[in-house]
Amino acid sequence: MSYFFPVLLAAILHLSILAVLFISPFKELEQSRELPRHIQAQMYDLKKLTTALQKEKVKAKDKVLDKAEKEPISEPKKEIEKKPEELEKLPEEKKEEPRDENKERELQKLEKAKQREVQKKTLEKELLEKKQAVKKQREIESKRKLAAKEKADKAALLKDQQRKEKEVKRKKEALDTKKKAIAEKKRKQL
Predict the structure, then answer these.
(1) Residue 16's pLDDT band (boundaries 50, 70, 90)?
(2) CA distance 188 to 176
């Protein structure tokens, strides 16, 4: 029997495996060269969003109220369009009712405006108080930092002074021992 076909099949198999191993990394390189998707992220502050939403609601209400104020009220015009004789014939109660409704509407608008002003003032006061509290905390923190820095500086100065004093004492002691040693040598030589 001949080993030609099995060897040929084994060689083809090994070459195909090697080809797959060498080609697959290059395909991954091509894929990695593709530009990635870019994501644009935005940071939102929830406090600012809520205050902005509240301001938008207040503006919308103001616009609605302004439109209501600008639009002419139809009921009084009807009464004015009526002849003076008809007005005299109507009972006094009916004449006063539309006026009362108009007054009530105006009073409600004024009350809402006052409430908005009060709310604005309270919000401004709260903001001022928060700002003042933040300023106080910053001042306290800066004072603490300064005090800690001063303490650290004093401690460093004391350590330096003590170290220098110890070095001076060591040098004096070393000089004294050298002098004593020299003096003893001289005595022994004499």
Answers:
(1) very high
(2) 18
